[in-house]
Fold these 2 entries.
Entry 1:
Amino acid sequence: MSLFIRELLSPNFDSRPDVPIDTLILHYTGMKSAQDAIDRLRDPVARVSSHYVVDEDGAVFRLVPEERRAFHAGISHWRGHSLLNGRSIGIEIVNPGHEWGYCEFPVLQLAAVCDLCLEILARHPIPARNVVAHSDVAPDRKEDPGEKFDWHSLARNGVGLWPKCDSPSPCGLGPQGEREILDALSAIGYRTDLPLPVLLRAFQRHWRQEAITGEADEGTLARITAVRQLVADTR
Ligand SMILES: [Zn+2]
């Protein structure tokens, strides 16, 4: 059964360039209420939008048709591509975010996000390694959807990547030295012309959410190795 989606179209879109849709970017709205967020995403003056909004109760709204370019990622980079709006689909997940009282994502909301992602993945050639956070593609500007978002659960349901090992030891010690760490992060998809702590925080928000320190501790390095390996294996 397909997901019930309500239309709340936004004027903030244009035509896509002639490139495949190969990236799925998840966001949180970062506003006090769902209504505030939807109003802003439909405000022609704001010039921002996303293809979908998922409310806390799991209600899904379509703001921009997938064949159009929505304005959600801004300056962004992943796996050698920049300005990802042209090749991506954006989902805004309602949550006040770090600025207004970051809270857990309700189970119903997460289930709706998962179902929506599965439907999108069935329609487009989006590899698992390209299912990413706004913070992954804009590490110096963004922290959404943040460390409370359950990427692990999504991956268990076939959306995105999550390494099997949860302890450092089975994955090896990880890269040694800044150059090797940057090479590993680059292989995963991150741009690497940013300070290492900024990149490590972005990595941790997605793949090692227990401590967002920006530090290259042993557990983070092991997880980087595990994700890098998974990316290589699922090419
Ligand atoms: Zn965002």
Entry 2:
Amino acid sequence: MRRLIFEAEHEIFRESARRFFQQEIAPHAEVWREQGCVDREAFLKAGVQGYLMMWAEEEYGGAGIADFRYEQILIEENLRYGEPGFYHQLHSRLVGPYIGALGTDEQKARLLPKCARGETILGIAMSEPGAGSDLAGIKTRAEDKGDRWLLNGSKTYISNGQIGDLFIVAARTVPGSRHGLGLFLVERAMVGFKRGRNLAKMGLKAQDTSELFFENVEVPKVNVLGDPAKGFGYLKQFLAEERLIISVGSLAYAQTAFDLTLDFIKERRAFGRPIGTFQNARFKMAELRAQLDATQTFVDQCVLEHNAARLTPEIAACAKLLATQLENQVMDECVQLHGGAGYMQEYRICRMFTDARITSIFAGCNEIMKEIIGRSLGLDERKLK
Ligand SMILES: Cc1cc2nc3c(=O)[nH]c(=O)nc-3n(C[C@H](O)[C@H](O)[C@H](O)COP(=O)(O)OP(=O)(O)OC[C@H]3O[C@@H](n4cnc5c(N)ncnc54)[C@H](O)[C@@H]3O)c2cc1C
């Protein structure tokens, strides 16, 4: 179905983005998957193109582009033609905006230009071994020592954990208060900051994910983001956009899987006919086509709502729930239609199946999405007694 949210200038941008991902990212993907992380070069090259931190004002190295559709195009083109382990969107759009929105002028001037050039790679560290879905359970703590904060604790499953240079770390600043968290900018070279091994994952092999350890890390006061007691609220504030980003990526990946499966079932023959002509295959693909079009239309509408600053946490939760459920369904059906080939690493669908499995778990698992949506309907045990 024709998508209605893009103008001519978006399409021109899409063409050049596509060339970039085809020429500069895809040829390295296999090596990156083997080594377990992308080369820093990927970020530097994206920086030269102006593809990182596009939202930042020009004085901070960005292009001052508030229109989320440009970011959407980068995410879509990378997933179709590049490599999903190149987490440019985490750097640019999931982490960078915390500095843009909460940072002081000094922090923005010091940090953002290097992020826009890809010289500094960003990550965000919320999750801990005992606190994933329940962020109020964070145990990493920061103590106010007058001119600095002293950070102790550990984080786990942190994306860009190996290649990252600057992490926003959520830590408890108000002992005894479930929501008393601060956000701290921890730099690669800070004494007492260590990273664990690159964790072996089911999929997303070119994306590095690690534990991070903080042992008496002295964080200067100039590296605190916003009010050090309001971190929990900040995290919640940015999660709606994070969920939209996941939805956009999930759908782009699902559309890609659909297209390559359609080609496959037209070519592959069994019982003297292309397997795509069996009624089962035709019906499966028809159902997926209809669901993909409907969900894409909804997510595109969410993008426009986001541009108009009207994307609510509930709508973002609906988008993430629908897009990631559908993505996983598409991957499963498409592996099935590939037969044994779908189980072989040399076929892209095999990799896509495992890459996609995470999307219903991270950025808030889908059960939490249902809680957010359900509570917005007034079905909240804290209020209905
Ligand atoms: C590849 C990868 C990259 C990641 N990147 C980052 C990152 O960059 N930064 C970061 O901070 N974190 C990151 N994470 C962590 C991720 O956000 C957490 O794994 C996720 O929030 C789930 O937390 P958990 O693993 O502790 O699962 P748990 O919280 O233990 O939940 C396990 C399961 O329990 C169920 N469940 C939990 N709560 C509820 C509920 N309220 N109602 C119903 N069911 C529930 C769900 O089925 C859920 O999947 C990453 C994880 C992975 C795997």
